[in-house]
């Protein structure tokens, strides 16, 4: 569902590098269609297209795909050139190894490494050479390389584990969208682990499809993280957009071919409860509609299943710290 919204934490984290280099962050935000005042509220969220535009604005302003947190710049076009270097490889193994070799040619950047451990493969990123206090670039690189690898072979690579060399951050609740798997903090390295069988798969893309892919990537890969086949993502798809006719937990469990007790247990393991999932989906749909002018606030409240606009106002302020009217007024 492309209406997934993005926590304002990631916007503030993305601006760390530009601020460090003396750029006018308010001007950058406005260029991306994000009102600076929106970031004053920690719970605020932005639409994916706003975040995608922000990434493009930052790369252009800095001429740096590392967004100002590396010792050296990674000039615009570096990622695209790497993609051109790997697109003719026969297998994913060859492509990823060539990609890591490509980036190793640039000193003082994040070290990207692919290794096999039995039946598993580990893609790790060494960020020791970076000034990345929010771990924004290293998380972005993991997301981009995972999405790129999945696109190359034409199927989503299911992650077995995601490990992080730092303590669990305050925004860890967002990781279900970015890294839909078991997550381990305080680990030896920052990495993604998946079945090694994917490495033997052939590349299904070519120069023609790469050209289309690069029109929006890697910004689009970051802006529209997809939980894929995680349980919470499956439930979001089953709930759909019509909040007035949402199925109850028992019906969802039946559609997932499990008992309600098993569903509740799995949800406890992943984090959010069934009610929290519904609230998050309502929140994201509300932000999606408020960012457009097709519906009035009252119509949005009705579509989201609220009995009266005042209930929607209270819920939205609890979710984002802003009223629906204030949020709509902040949009570009």
From TrEMBL:
Gene3D superfamilies, sorted: Homeodomain-like
Coiled-coil region: none
SMART domains: HTH_ARAC
SUPFAM superfamilies linked to this entry: Homeodomain-like
Classification via InterPro entries: AraC-type_N (IPR032687), Homeodomain-like_sf (IPR009057), HTH_AraC (IPR018060), Tscrpt_reg_AraC-type_HTH (IPR020449)
Keywords: DNA-binding, Transcription, Transcription regulation
The UniProt record lists the keyword Cytoplasm: no
Designated name of the protein: AraC family transcriptional regulator
Organism, as annotated: Metapseudomonas boanensis
Taxonomic lineage: Bacteria, Pseudomonadati, Pseudomonadota, Gammaproteobacteria, Pseudomonadales
């Amino acid at each position: 569902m492309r209406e997934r919204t993005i926590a304002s934490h990631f916007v503030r984290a993305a601006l760390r590098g530009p601020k460090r280099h003396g750029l006018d962050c308010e001007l950058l935000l406005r260029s991306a269609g994000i009102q600076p005042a929106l970031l004053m509220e920690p719970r605020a969220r932005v639409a994916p297209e706003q975040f995608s535009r922000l990434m493009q604005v930052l790369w252009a302003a800095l001429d740096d795909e590392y967004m100002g947190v590396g010792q050296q710049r990674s000039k615009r076009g570096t990622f695209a050139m790497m993609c051109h270097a790997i697109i003719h490889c026969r297998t994913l193994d060859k492509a990823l190894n060539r990609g890591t070799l490509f980036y190793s040619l640039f000193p003082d950047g994040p070290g990207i490494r692919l290794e096999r451990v039995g039946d598993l493969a580990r893609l790790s990123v060494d960020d020791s050479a970076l000034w990345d206090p929010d771990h924004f670039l290293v998380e972005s690189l993991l997301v981009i390389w995972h999405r790129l690898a999945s696109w190359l072979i034409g199927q989503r690579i299911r992650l077995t584990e995601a490990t992080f060399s730092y303590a669990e951050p305050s925004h860890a609740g967002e990781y279900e969208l970015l890294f839909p798997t078991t997550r381990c903090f305080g680990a030896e390295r920052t990495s993604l682990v998946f079945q090694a069988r994917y490495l033997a798969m052939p590349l299904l893309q070519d120069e023609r499809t790469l050209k289309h892919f690069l029109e929006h990537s890697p910004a689009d890969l970051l802006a529209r993280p997809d939980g894929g086949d995680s349980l919470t993502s499956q439930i979001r798809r089953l709930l759909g957009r019509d909040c007035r006719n949402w199925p109850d937990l028992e019906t969802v469990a039946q559609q997932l071919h499990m008992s309600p007790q098993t569903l509740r247990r799995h949800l406890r393991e992943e984090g959010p409860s069934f009610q929290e999932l519904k609230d998050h989906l309502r929140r994201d749909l509300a932000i999606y509609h408020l960012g457009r002018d097709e519906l009035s606030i009252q119509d949005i409240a009705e579509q989201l299943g609220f009995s009266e606009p005042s209930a929607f106002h209270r819920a939205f302020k609890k979710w984002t710290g802003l009223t629906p009217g204030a949020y709509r007024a902040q949009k570009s």
